[in-house]
Write a structure and sequence with these properties.
- This protein is α+β, with helices and mostly antiparallel strands and 532 residues long.
- It has three domains: 2-80, Alpha-Beta Plaits, CATH 3.30.70.2700; 101-280 and 484-529, FAD/NAD(P)-binding domain (3-Layer(bba) Sandwich); 283-477, no CATH class.
- Helices cover 28% and strands 24% of the residues.
- The strands form six sheets. A seven-stranded mixed sheet has the order 14-15-18-13-21-19-20. A five-stranded parallel sheet has the order 7-6-5-11-23, with helices on one face. Strands 2-3-1-4 form a four-stranded antiparallel sheet, with helices on one face.
- The longest helix has 17 residues, at 204-220.
- The mean pLDDT is 94.
Amino acid sequence: MWFKISQFRVPLDLAEQELPEFIGEYFQLAKEQIKEVRILRQSLDARHKVLAYIYTIIFEISVSEAEIKHLLEKEPNLVVYQPAGSTVCRKAVMKPKQRPIIVGAGPAGLFAALCLAEAGFRPLIIERGDGLASRIETVNHFWRTGKLDLESNIQYGMGGAGTFSDGKLTTRIKDPRVAEILDQMIKAGAPPEIRYCQYPHVGTDLLRQVLIQLETKIVERGGEFCYRQALVGLKANKQSMTTIKLASGQELETELLLLATGNSARDLYRLLVQEGFQLESKPFAVGLRIEHPQELIDRAQYGKWAGHQRLGAAEYHLTYKHQPTKRGVYSFCMCPGGMVVGATSALEAVVTNGMSYHARDSGVANAAIVVTVGQADFESSSPLAGINFQEKLEQKAYQLGGGGYHAPAQRVADFLRCQPSTGFTKLLPSYRPGVTPANLWELLPEELAQAIRDALGYFNQKLQGFSYVDAVLTGVETRTSAPVRILRDEKRCALGMEGVYPVGEGAGYAGGIVSSALDGWRTAEAIIEQYF
């Protein structure tokens, strides 16, 4: 019989492989009675003087009816459990006349493709950037030389923007498909602990291996990938057929078009407005990347346990309400043991992002400190006004960085005093292609800079040392989420455009790897349902 126990406190030094024995001792069970133990959730409890892990665990044991009653009476957090079934996509009875076309090979596009391929739909995936190997070379070349490829960069190419990130898989969405998505990633090479860690991550190095395996699986099931094929034209007849035009001049027709282009596809947003699609501007956040010595964050979070082999590099999640402006300020995309990297996809524009390898062992922690912005900050009521706001900040950052895609950077002590930095000594900025000492108050609108300045003081109260004088701020972070939403109906089609499905973060319906993958998966399921 299966049981589930929640709020199960386990000593920090207890290895996960020792859990069956620990459970046996706790419930006074013989070793042969314990059949299987699975972790559903693991979180770290740092509220008390002694750190411990808190688990939710399911386990199968061989017990009598009397023993079951005794166990349930002894432990209030124990319940009888029924394992959930699989949520794998079904094979369709019928097939569309033409194969579905998916534009974009990020998480939404890949998991939509996987689901459709499993159903026998043989999807065609169009990606404007390179395949993985070529894309890695192109991005590394940009970081070394400052020579940007407009079609293949951190934003465009196999895997989407998340390919060069920490590979975070955190989501608050309660949907059984999330477990299936994580299982698919584990089968493709992701570490098994992503199933249950409180803040799961893969790391950019392991995530690349996962992408290779997912692509292989999709191709084996009839899918096809076409790289270096940017979408430049789109005609929907508002009934059942859509024609797309690629940069190569090729035109393709389909009755099922999924737009999974990510939140940096500004040319697509402009094309959709031109073609009569309904878009709306939405709030997002902009700000700066902050870097600290990882050791400082470890000590602030773990105290005397900093450096413990089971803890790894510490994370943080900070929020602040700036009362004078009523804006939210928060840490975003925190990368323990990572680096700050150039993430632009536009000429003469600077964009920052954070990245970590799975080991998180660079010795430097970084995160974006961002401030919410919305319609009141934009210059017009156009659905594209947020994009224009982003572009102006990115171009200003390029100018303040002195060209060559160098980013403007500033010591925290100088930022708090609103004076330019002249150099860096104790902590060197990790941003590639490079940085230029500057005054970031010249970059951000004053109201946003004030909100970040006040937030740094508040965060220092929550996390000792956060406003460390030699911490480094680098600008600008703008691509936190989509600045627009492509409106869609209850069938997940774009409003008034039958057969066109906006999905994922770029459509304004997700934020991050898992939620984007889930949105793509659910859209694929909705399509498959039409063919039963």
